Amino acid sequence: MLQMRDRPGAGAVGVGLSRAADPARAVAEAAAQLDLAQSCFVLVFVPDRMDLGALAAALGGTLAGLPVFGCTTAGQITPEGYEDDALMMLAFPRAHFRCASMLIEPLGPCPIEKVSADARKLAAQFSHSAHWNRLALIFADGLSRQEDMLVAALAAGLDDLPVFGGSAGDGMNFRRTAVFQNGAFHSDAALLILLETDLEFAGLGFDHFLPTEHLMVVTDAIPEERLVLELNGAPAAQEYARLVGCPVDQLSPEIFAEHPVLVRNNSIYHVRAIQKVTGDGALAFLSAIDDGLLLTLGQGQEILRTLDQGLDVTDEAGRAPDFILGFDCFLRKLEIGQKQLTGRVSEILRDRRVLGFNTYGEQHCGVHVNQTFVGVAFFEPRRRVLA
C-alpha cells in the first residue's frame, strides 16, 4: 500500500492511484495499492474522462462492503501534485477514523430547515468516542447553484462542528458533476460525512487576492441563477471588461481567474468567481449574487509564496501534518497553469503532503467561496506526540 508515511515523517492515510482510462482497470489498480481490510472508508476522486456508470459498477464490485464516498473533479491533487487524469482513492484506517454519512437529495432548491434538522439528527446519532475529535466534510454538485444555502443550513444544524468541503467538478466541461455514495453517482445532490478521529486537526482557508479601488454595484441580477445582468448600470460583461482592461470578446476563464471580484464580510474579503459570459452579455457566477451587492475587483498576490505560507502549519509540538486533505479551486489551478507554475506548485503540494481535488467552489467557516484553498491538516494524536 502506498501511504503518506512513505514520505519522511508522514502518516497513515492510504493512497491508491491509477491513470488507466478503463474504469474497471483503474479501480482494480488503485484498490490493489490499499489495505482495504484495515480501512474505515474510502474517498474516491474522479477525473472528468471517466464513464460514471461503469465506474460505479467497478467500485461496487471491488470495494463491496466498505463505505465509499467521493465526487467528480476538475483535477486531482495526488502525491505527485496537480494531475488531471488520475483516479485517486484515499483509504482512512479504522485505527484512526470513524464516519457517518448522509445524502442530501434533491439539492435544489435547498430545503434549509430539513437539511439543518437532518444534519443535527445525524450528529446526535453518531456516538462520540472519548477524547476523539469531530469534523464534517461536505461534497456538493458543483453545478447546482445551491452551495451557499447548503452551507448555511449545515452551519445551523451542526452548531460548532467545523465543516470543510468542495464542490464537485467536471474538468473544464461544466456538463455534469456528481457525488458518490451507496454505490451510485448522484447529481443535484450533496454528501455530508461526519468524521471522528484520534488525530489532531486544523482547518485551512486562504486565497491570494487583495482588494483594489475598483468597485462595482450589482444593479440587475437573477440571484437564483447566479446571473449578473448589469454592473454599475451597464451591461455586466462590458463593465467588467472595462475595469480589467480587456475587450469583451476576449474575456475567458483565464481572465476571470486573474481578476476575480471580492465581497466584503466585516473585515474579511471572500472571492466570488465568474464562470463565464453568457450569450446576452451577462456574467454567470460560481457563488451567490444579488441585487445591490457591492463588489470589489481583486488583485492577485504572488501565488507561490501565499500557497507555501498558507500550507505552513504545525501542531502544538511544532510538527508538520501527517497529511492535508485539500480542496483547491480549479480557477487557481488554471491561473497557475497559465503562469507556467504547475511544476513548482506541485512540488509545494508534495512537500506539504496535500491530497485532494480541484473544485468548482469551496466551503469553509459556514461560507461558500471561490478561488480559495480550503483544507484540513491532520496531525499525529496528542498522546503519541507526548509519549
Automatic annotation (TrEMBL):
<protein>
    <recommendedName>
        <fullName>FIST signal transduction protein</fullName>
    </recommendedName>
</protein>
<dbReference type="Pfam" id="PF08495">
    <property type="entry name" value="FIST"/>
</dbReference>
<dbReference type="InterPro" id="IPR013702">
    <property type="entry name" value="FIST_domain_N"/>
</dbReference>
<feature type="domain" description="FIST">
    <location>
        <begin position="38"/>
        <end position="235"/>
    </location>
</feature>
<dbReference type="Pfam" id="PF10442">
    <property type="entry name" value="FIST_C"/>
</dbReference>
<feature type="domain" description="FIST C-domain">
    <location>
        <begin position="236"/>
        <end position="366"/>
    </location>
</feature>
<dbReference type="InterPro" id="IPR019494">
    <property type="entry name" value="FIST_C"/>
</dbReference>
